[in-house]
Automatic annotation (TrEMBL):
SUPFAM superfamilies the record matches: SET domain
GO annotation, biological process: methylation
GO CC, one annotated term: nucleus
Gene3D superfamilies listed in its UniProt record: SET domain
Record keywords, A-Z: Methyltransferase, S-adenosyl-L-methionine, Transferase
GO MF terms, alphabetically ordered: histone deacetylase binding; methyltransferase activity
Stored InterPro entries: SET-MYND_domain_protein (IPR052097), SET_dom_sf (IPR046341)
This protein's name: SET domain-containing protein
Length: 166
């Protein structure tokens, strides 16, 4: 939704990107909605002093589902089957670090994935992209080379096609 107001007019105009049902609750994004859920929650908690409970922040429901997802098993071991189902990270309660024992089970093939490994993959890909973008600002040619290499890395190819870094 886009909103605007008329100064001194006491009027607020909200334009939605989709049809809304009468009485449907409207949410406002205080922070970048494409960040990981835990990062968004921390920014909202620190900057606005509340715990957001919208569909995007409350869990893995809503349009956010695949923005931080990884692919289950794009390159399986010889004795395993390939599985390209989305694995959703960030399942720890807000404000807590995932424990080594926390796992996410693929709904498609039942493979188990450590949450810490998924979060580390997301973090590694984000750091590689930030480095490539920094180089791009300093030297366009070298930056494009680094960006191309980033897109070809095995880590990036494990990210879901709808991942926010792609």
């Amino acid at each position: 939704a886009v909103y605007s107001f008329v100064p001194g007019g006491g009027e607020l105009v909200v334009r939605a990107a989709r049809d809304l049902k009468e009485g449907e609750q409207i949410f406002y994004a205080y922070v970048d909605p494409f960040q990981q859920r835990s990062a968004r929650q921390n920014l909202i908690r620190q900057g606005y002093f509340f715990q957001c409970a919208c569909d995007w922040c409350a869990g893995s429901r809503g349009p956010e589902r695949h923005l931080n997802a990884v692919i289950c098993s794009p390159w399986p071991e010889p004795d395993e089957l390939k599985c390209e189902a989305a694995i959703l990270p960030d399942v720890s309660p807000e404000g807590s670090q995932p424990m080594e024992s926390e796992v996410v089970t693929c709904a498609s093939c039942q493979r188990r994935h450590a949450v810490t490994e998924i979060n580390a993959l997301n973090q590694s890909a984000e750091e590689m992209l930030e480095s490539a973008m920094q180089t791009l600002h300093e030297d366009a040619t070298q930056g494009f080379i680094k960006l191309s290499r980033f897109l070809e890395t095995k880590e990036v190819r494990k990210l879901h096609p709808c991942h926010h870094l792609l």
